[in-house]
Design a protein that fits this description.
By secondary structure, this protein is of the alpha/beta class. It is built from 14 helices and 17 strands. It is elongated and about 85 Å long. Bound molecules: L-homoserine.
């Protein structure tokens, strides 16, 4: 024990999550302090907008817009980084670690792109960096992945880790909203990113997958090896057909440990209605884990928002405070060795859903069947419905097929004269 009775905190950034952290600390600080056996004091709060900090009731001695007042301040034991973004936050965190301070962050972009470097620096300096709020907001996830599953081999992690896109799909399904209108509502409710293209194009989910995969598969992940496809191509018609076929469409982040290597991907997928992930609606997140010994696990809750994420940040603060008081660095769980083998999406097997319009005339189905048959793609389900004019709408679901064989068959299908361009193509969760 160091005998330390007070942990002095520097908070970088008083945005949505920063505000949540301050108010939760006010509300529950006493309880947390009882559990850790030391007082927590907000020594300095940094924000560019000092008037905002004054309006929040902080004294002049507590507020600053000068990073050195936090990072070079010898009184500060622990820095909470909530400014977001990559390069500035990375520089701040490195300075904090260099100066022997513990760090807590909810910055997924940074931990996904530079987590290995920061964890190694923390280790070298005899401190640690905690990042529970970076994935799944308020869902306790990093800690279970890091500590509770250390004795098992995880074979697959499947996450609904982006609340914005899950909300969009839910509203498209239940209220027939367009993607754009549902996105505007998600932004109003405050869980979309400042730049929502990161949500819609799947990058936000990819960052979260990189962090989770690093922990469950025990290696440092190369972000360039993750296949990322957003939700832009999914229409209301696809959601309705999926429902008719017994599926829900979700944006999934999937990490698999295969004999040939790691397969990491983010894409929308048809999830069987009886899979626990199918019933995860609105902005909720869920992470489904398959372990060899433990079997199936699912973590569910609010993956974004000020107060849920603040619970994760303050749990990290409590853990860091205990490390400081007990002079123990709780940080040798992450393996920082780079992952060596990856499997490309082209080599993965999936079932596929395909929807397109075609002229309704003789021979179209025969040509289709030939194109698929030539590539040994076996069809599982076929629906044809009459559309306005002379058009037929055709929906096909294949059996398991390797991605590249499906793509070859698809390019032959799209050469058939009667078939209209821009089909919807989605994978199924197997
Ligand atoms: N934009 C994210 C989401 C916020 O919608 O889930 C939390 O990372």
């Amino acid at each position: 024990l160091t005998g330390k009775k007070e942990i002095k905190i520097g908070l970088l950034g008083m945005g949505t999550i920063g505000g949540g952290v301050v108010s939760l600390l006010k509300r529950n600080g006493g309880r947390i302090e009882e559990k850790i056996g030391a007082a927590l004091s907000l020594e300095k709060i940094l924000d560019l907008d000092l008037d905002k900090l004054r309006a929040a009731g902080f004294s002049e001695s507590q507020i600053t817009n000068d990073p050195s007042a936090v990072l070079e301040n010898p009184a500060i034991d622990l820095v909470i980084e909530l400014i977001g973004g990559v390069e500035t936050a990375r520089g701040f965190i490195k300075r904090a670690l260099e100066n022997g301070k513990y760090v807590v962050t909810a910055n997924k972009d940074l931990m996904a792109s530079h987590g290995g470097e920061l964890l190694a620096l923390a280790r070298e300096k005899g401190v640690n960096i905690f990042y529970e709020g970076s994935v799944g907001g308020g869902i306790p996830l990093i800690r279970p992945l890091k500590y509770s599953l250390v004795a098992d081999r995880v074979t697959r992690v499947i996450g609904i880790v982006n609340g914005t896109t899950n909300y969009i799909f839910t509203r498209m399904d239940r209220d027939s909203l367009s993607l754009e209108d549902a996105l505007a509502e998600a932004q109003k409710l405050g869980f979309a990113e400042a730049d929502p293209s990161s949500d819609v194009e799947g990058r936000d989910a990819a960052y979260k997958l990189i962090i989770m995969a690093g922990l469950v598969f025990g290696s440092s992940i190369d972000p360039g090896q993750v296949y990322v496809e957003g939700i832009g191509g999914v229409t209301y018609e696809d959601i309705a057909y999926a429902r008719e076929l017994g599926y829900a469409i979700k944006l999934l982040a999937i990490g698999e440990k295969l004999p040939q290597g790691l397969a990491l991907r983010v894409h929308p997928a048809l999830v069987p209605a009886d899979h626990p992930l199918a019933s995860v609606s609105n902005e909720f997140n869920a992470i489904f884990i398959e372990g060899e010994a433990v079997g199936d696990l699912m973590f569910y809750g609010r993956g974004a928002g000020s107060m849920p994420t603040a619970t994760a940040v303050l749990a990290d603060v409590a853990e860091a405070a205990r490390c400081i008081c007990h002079q123990s660095v709780n940080g040798v769980i992450e393996n920082l060795q780079p992952e060596r083998s990856y499997v490309s999406i082209d080599d993965l097997n999936n079932r596929f859903y395909l929807r397109f319009l075609a002229d309704d005339r003789p021979g179209v189905f025969a040509a289709l069947a030939n194109a698929f048959g030539d590539e040994l793609v076996s069809l599982d389900m076929v629906i044809q419905k009459r559309r306005v004019g002379a058009m037929a709408e055709i929906v096909i679901v294949t059996h398991d097929v390797q991605e590249k064989a499906f793509q070859r068959a698809l390019s032959k299908v799209m050469q058939i004269d009667a078939i209209k361009p821009n089909p919807s193509i989605l994978r199924l969760l197997g």
